[in-house]
């Protein structure tokens, strides 16, 4: 009797394992969330804000085994830009007045999403997940210019592939961290407040 049950249990375990790896391609909408303490550091200065997704390819990464079976993950910034709205709101809380950047803006903050990488690779018994975001910021006023790159990264391990909501949460938390680093950079804010 046990000889008949063992192959059946093995087949059942293999079927569950294969079913657990079935993941659909995913597209994540960027929706960062910042917690900015109100301040008057901007003293009402008018800033032209420009936010761009400068990635040449919107494909962000993969989930699965990169050599056998995987699905792609893509991330996009909705229109109007959620990153722009969140940055503008944060700058307003810092005491700045914000408008879309133009050639006539005396103070400008340009933020570019230059890299967004996400991968959750299947290992024998786990999925190793890594997310990385890079933002480039350029701030200028009439006399000075400031440039810097800001990165946020997260690594984790789990027993199953990440769900759509887990992927979205991970990506958006890293975009939020990098954007928070931009807007809490004292040199950048001081230049814009001049």
Describe this structure in words.
This protein has helices at residues 2-20, 82-93, 164-183, 186-193, and strands spanning 26-29, 46-53, 59-64, 70-76, 97-100, 108-122, 127-140, 145-158. The chain has 194 residues and is α/β, with parallel strands linked by helices. The protein has a single domain, classed as Double Stranded RNA Binding Domain (2-Layer Sandwich). Strands 1, 2, 3, 4, 5, 6, 7 and 8 form an eight-stranded mixed beta sheet that branches. The chain is elongated.
N to C succession of SSEs: HEEEEHEEEEHH
Q: DSSP strand (E) fraction?
A: 35-45%
Spatial shape: elongated
Number of helices: 4
Architecture, according to CATH? 2-Layer Sandwich
Mean pLDDT: 89
Instruction: Tell me the name of the CATH class.
Output: Alpha Beta
Number of domains: 1
Rounded to an integer in angstroms, the radius of gyration calculated over CA atoms is 22 Å
As for the CATH topology, it is Double Stranded RNA Binding Domain
Q: Biggest β-sheet, characterized?
A: 8 strands, mixed
Beta-strand segment tally? 8
Uncertain spans, ≥5 residues at pLDDT below 50? 12-21
Secondary-structure content class = alpha/beta
List keywords for this structure.
single chain, 194 residues, Double Stranded RNA Binding Domain, 8-stranded mixed β-sheet
């Amino acid at each position: 009797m046990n000889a008949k049950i063992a192959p059946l249990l093995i087949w059942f375990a293999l079927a569950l394992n294969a079913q657990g790896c079935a993941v659909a391609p995913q597209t994540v909408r960027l929706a960062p969330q910042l917690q900015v303490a109100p301040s008057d550091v901007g003293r009402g200065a008018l800033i032209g804000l420009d936010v761009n997704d400068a990635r040449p390819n919107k494909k962000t990464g993969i989930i699965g085994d990169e050599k056998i079976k995987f699905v792609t993950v893509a991330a996009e910034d909705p229109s109007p830009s959620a990153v722009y709205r969140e940055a503008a709101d944060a700058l307003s809380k810092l005491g700045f007045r914000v408008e879309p950047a133009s050639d006539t803006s005396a103070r400008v903050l340009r933020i570019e999403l230059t890299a967004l990488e996400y991968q959750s690779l299947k290992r024998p018994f786990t999925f190793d997940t890594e997310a990385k975001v890079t933002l480039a910021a350029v701030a200028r006023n009439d006399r000075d210019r400031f440039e810097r790159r800001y990165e946020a990264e997260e690594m984790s391990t789990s027993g199953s592939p990440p769900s759509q909501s887990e992927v979205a949460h991970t990506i958006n938390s890293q975009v939020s961290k990098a954007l928070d680093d931009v807007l809490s950079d004292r040199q950048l804010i001081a230049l814009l407040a001049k």
